[in-house]
Design brief:
By secondary structure, this protein is α/β, with parallel strands linked by helices. It has a single domain, classed as Roll (2,3-Dihydroxybiphenyl 1,2-Dioxygenase, domain 1). It is built from two helices and eight strands; from the N terminus they run βαββββαβββ. The strands form two sheets. A four-stranded mixed β-sheet has the order 1-4-3-2, with helices on one face. A four-stranded mixed β-sheet has the order 5-8-7-6, covered by helices on one side. Helix 1 packs antiparallel against helix 2. It is globular and about 45 Å long.
Amino acid sequence: MCTKMNPVNWFEIPVTELNRAKEFYEYVFEVELTLNGEGPWQMAWFPMNQGIPGSTGALVKSEGYIPSYEGTVIYFTVESLDVSLKKVEEKGGKTIFPRMSIGEYGFIAHFEDTEGNRVALHAIK
């Protein structure tokens, strides 16, 4: 593993209804996802900016991709946990646990998306 960068550069979130999930994530994070793929492998890509820290990924609908409440949890950085959790609820998601302090590293919260995945948020304030 290269030690000069963060170890994660891509993530995939399993979905059963790609358009519903795309609409949910676009609303919650105020981004535009790009549809890609066809047939049994369908994706909606999150935006990507070259040359800056962080990773990007996609929503994926394909055989073997099953939404899960258990397992790996992805954290999205947001400006406001409260605003983001409100958007989650407005679009059919559920807050699993609300804003929680992690000391000097800020705050986190977890939610369930429209597909049944556990996803997390991180904010400095």
